[in-house]
Amino acid sequence: MAPALPVSPLARPLPELGSIRGVRLGAAAAGIRYQNRTDLVLAEFIAGTTVAGVFTKSKCPGAPVDWCRDILPDGEARVLVVNAGNANVFTGKAGRETCTVTADAAAQLAGCSPRNVYLASTGVIGEILPHERITAALPALHASLSETGWEAAARGIMTTDTFPKAAIRTATLNGATVTLQGIAKGSGMIAPDMATMLGFITTDAAIPAPVLQRLLSEEIKTTFNCITVDSDTSTSDMALLFATGTAENAAIDENTTTDAPILGAFKAALHSVLKELALLVIRDGEGVTKLITIQVSGAVSDDSAWRVAMAIGNSPLVKTAIAGEDANWGRVVMAVGKCGEPADRDTLSVSIGGVCIAHNGTVVAGYDETPVVNHMKGQEIEIEVSLGLGNGSARIWSCDLTHGYIDINGSYRS
Amino acid sequence: MAPALPVSPLARPLPELGSIRGVRLGAAAAGIRYQNRTDLVLAEFIAGTTVAGVFTKSKCPGAPVDWCRDILPDGEARVLVVNAGNANVFTGKAGRETCTVTADAAAQLAGCSPRNVYLASTGVIGEILPHERITAALPALHASLSETGWEAAARGIMTTDTFPKAAIRTATLNGATVTLQGIAKGSGMIAPDMATMLGFITTDAAIPAPVLQRLLSEEIKTTFNCITVDSDTSTSDMALLFATGTAENAAIDENTTTDAPILGAFKAALHSVLKELALLVIRDGEGVTKLITIQVSGAVSDDSAWRVAMAIGNSPLVKTAIAGEDANWGRVVMAVGKCGEPADRDTLSVSIGGVCIAHNGTVVAGYDETPVVNHMKGQEIEIEVSLGLGNGSARIWSCDLTHGYIDINGSYRS
C-alpha cells in the first residue's frame, strides 16, 4: 500500500456522537487488504427496523449492490456488514457467492433471515473478495457490538478517506423527539448518480419503509447527488437509511407523502444530515485544498441548471485554475458553453466570491480583480452563474484538482 | 507568462513541407500577449479558392467563430488571419468590432471582400483583443508572404503547444495529382465537439465548396472529433479546409456525394491528414507522457461506442492510473458503467495491450499481469473494450493525466 495520506486541510472533527436506541455496532480488522487497521464494520438493528436505500446507477454495479437491491422491497433490516479495501465488483459468480455466504453467517449470529442482512463493499475493483476472512472475523465482532461503536464504524469503512465522517441531528416527529445519526465514506471516484460513496444513516424514528424510501429518494437529489470530486461514478455507491422505531412516535401512515406537514421537521433534519455528510466527502476529496460551491440560476429548468453546474464542477480547467488560485472566469464560460444545455452567451453572467465579473456576454466595465484574487486565496470558493433564460436553479459542491489527486491515483493499487 | 514548457516526450518532428500553389503565408510578432515570439499568422489564397469549415458547438463561441460561420455559405476564401494569445471570446461588442476591423484591413491588402477573410483567435478568454496591434502588423506581414511560410505559420499559432504541428499527403483526383498540407494547434481545452483546436488544411485540388464541406464534415467525425485531452471543449474550435484549384484537375460536379469513387483517394488522404493532425494534438496534450488508444466494439451503435470510449478517455481515474503505469482495469469497468450507455456487466470484456484481462463479467482465470505491466511502461497504451451487445464500434485517442497538467493549468494566466 501507499503510505498513509496526510489529513485533508479541509477536514472537520467528528461531532460528538450519541447513540440510536436499537442500533449496536463495531469494527474489526479482518485483514482483507489493509494492515494494522479496521476494515470490517458490523451493525445490528432491533427487530422491526425499516430501511430505505438508493444505489449507484452504474451499469457495472458491485455484487453487494445487486444483493441490497434484491432485498430492499422487503423493507426490513436487522444487520449491516461493510468491508473496506475490496469492492467485490466485476467478480462474477465468486462475488455473488461472497454475498450469500456473508449474509448467511451474519443472519445466523443475529437470528434473522439472510434477506434482512444488508451488505456493502468499497475498495479495489476486480479482485475476488475472500469471504472466509469476513466470516472468520464476524463472531468476535458480533460479540463486541455496542451502542457506542459509532466512531469505530466511521473509521472502519474508510479507504482513501483521510478523516472519519459523521453527522447528527434531532427533530420532532408526531409527538416524539427523534434523532438521526449517520456515517459516510468517500474521497475519490466521487460523482453523482446517487451517492458515489457509502452512507449509512440511522434514526430511532418509527417510519414505514415506503415513507422512508420516498424521503431518502427525494433528499438525496439535492445532497449526495450534488457533489463531485472527479466526475467518476463508483460501482459501489450506496446510501441506506435505517429507522429503528425506538423513539416510539405515534404511527405514520405508509401512504404519507413527503410534503405532509407531519414529516416536515424530520425531512429537514434528514436533508441536513445528508448534506453535511456529502460536504464532508468533498472536504476529503482526493488532493483537495479548496471547497467550491457552484450556484446556477436562470436556467430553463432545475435539471438543466444542475447539468450546467456539474459541467463547471467537473471541468479539469476550472478545477486546476482554482487550485492555482487563479480567477480564470473564462474557463467557467467555457464549461457553460460546452455542456450542451440551453445557454446564450449574450445573457450570461458570472460572479466569483460575490463579485460580478462578466455580464450579458462581456466583462463588466471597470472590473477590478483585487477582491476576487483575495477570495481565491481562501479555502471556500463561490461561483455563481446566471443564464438569464428561465427560473431553473441548482447548487452543487466540488473541489479543486491538485498534484495530490495525481499522487493518490497514480499509485492506488501499488 | 509562465516559463516555456519542456517539449512533450511524445513530440514528432515537423514533416518535410512543400508548398501549395496559390497559397502564400507567413507570421509576425504583433505583441498581442507573448514576448519574443510570433503570434500573428496571415495566409493569402489565389482567387477562386473554395472553403469548408467546422466549428465548436460551444454555446459561448468566440467572435471569430461567429464571423466565420456567417461568411462560410459564400464558399470562397482569399485570406486567413490567425492570432495566438487572446481568444477574443466573451468580449461582446468590442470583440465583434475587432473582427470587422481586422477583416477590413486584411481585405484591403488582398484586394478582396471582407467576406472572403477568415479569422481565428486562440488564447485567454474574456480579455479584449487589441485590434490595433493586429492591423499595425498586417501590412509588413502581407509584404513578406511566401509559398514557403508553412513552418513559420505552424509556429505562429501555438499557445501552450510545445511543438509545431503539420501534415502532408498526396492523392490523385480526376486525372491530376493533388496535395493536401495542413497545420494545427492544440494542447489543452481539448475535447471533441468538432475539433477543439485550430486546424487549417489547404489543397491545390479544384473542388466545389459544397463537396469540400461534405468531405470535411464527414472526415472530422472519426479524426478531430475522436480525441480528448481533458474533456473541456474550447470556445474557439475551428477546422478550415481551403482548395485553391491550382492542380487543375478536371471539374468535380457540386452535387458529388462523399461516397463517389471519383473522390475516394482524395477522401482517404484528407482523412489521413486530419487524423495525423489530431494525433499530434494528443501527442502535445498538456503534461502528456502516454498516448492512449481506446477501441470499443460490440456496442448497440457507433455513436454509443463513441460515448463509451470517450467516458473511458475522459475519466480522471483511468488517466491517472495510466500516468502511474498501473494496469488498473477496474477503472475502465467503472467508466463503462457510469456513462449511461447500454452495457451489461456480464457480457463485458476488457483487454489492455492485447491481453484479455476480464471477460463476461469477471477476471479471466489465471490472468497473468506481467505482460500488461510491461505494456503500461511504454509510451502508447492500448485499451480494448467489447460490450457484447451489438455491432457498434469506435476508436478514440486520449492521453494520461499528470502533474504536468496541473502545473500548466494552475498558472496559465499568471
Automatic annotation (TrEMBL), chains A, B:
The Swiss-Prot or TrEMBL record describes its family as follows: Belongs to the ArgJ family.
Q: What is its EC number?
A: 2.3.1.35, 2.3.1.1
Reaction catalysed? L-glutamate + acetyl-CoA = N-acetyl-L-glutamate + CoA + H(+); N(2)-acetyl-L-ornithine + L-glutamate = N-acetyl-L-glutamate + L-ornithine
Keyword terms: Acyltransferase, Amino-acid biosynthesis, Arginine biosynthesis, Autocatalytic cleavage, Cytoplasm, Multifunctional enzyme, Transferase
Instruction: Provide the assembly information.
Output: Heterotetramer of two alpha and two beta chains.
Instruction: Enumerate the Pfam families for this protein.
Output: ArgJ (PF01960)
Which residues are the active-site ones? 196 (nucleophile)
Q: What species is given as this protein's source?
A: Acetobacter thailandicus
The record's InterPro entries line, in alphabetical order, gives: Arg_biosynth_ArgJ, ArgJ-like_dom_sf, ArgJ_beta_C
UniProt-annotated site: Involved in the stabilization of negative charge on the oxyanion by the formation of the oxyanion hole, residues: 122-123
Care to name a GO molecular-function term for this sequence?
Answer: L-glutamate N-acetyltransferase activity, acting on acetyl-L-ornithine as donor
Where does this one sit in the cell? Cytoplasm
Its biological purpose? Catalyzes two activities which are involved in the cyclic version of arginine biosynthesis: the synthesis of N-acetylglutamate from glutamate and acetyl-CoA as the acetyl donor, and of ornithine by transacetylation between N(2)-acetylornithine and glutamate.
Name where it mostly resides. cytoplasm
Instruction: Report the gene name.
Output: argJ
**Transmembrane parts of this sequence:** none
NCBIfam families from the xrefs?
ArgJ, PRK05388.1
> Quick check: keyword Transmembrane in the entry?
no
Q: Where does substrate bind?
A: 159, 185, 196, 286, 409, 414
Q: From the UniProt record, give the pathway where this protein acts.
A: Amino-acid biosynthesis; L-arginine biosynthesis; L-ornithine and N-acetyl-L-glutamate from L-glutamate and N(2)-acetyl-L-ornithine (cyclic): step 1/1; Amino-acid biosynthesis; L-arginine biosynthesis; N(2)-acetyl-L-ornithine from L-glutamate: step 1/4
Q: What class of enzyme is it?
A: transferase
UniProt site positions, description: Cleavage: 195-196
Instruction: Report the CDD domains cross-referenced here.
Output: OAT
Name of protein: Arginine biosynthesis bifunctional protein ArgJ
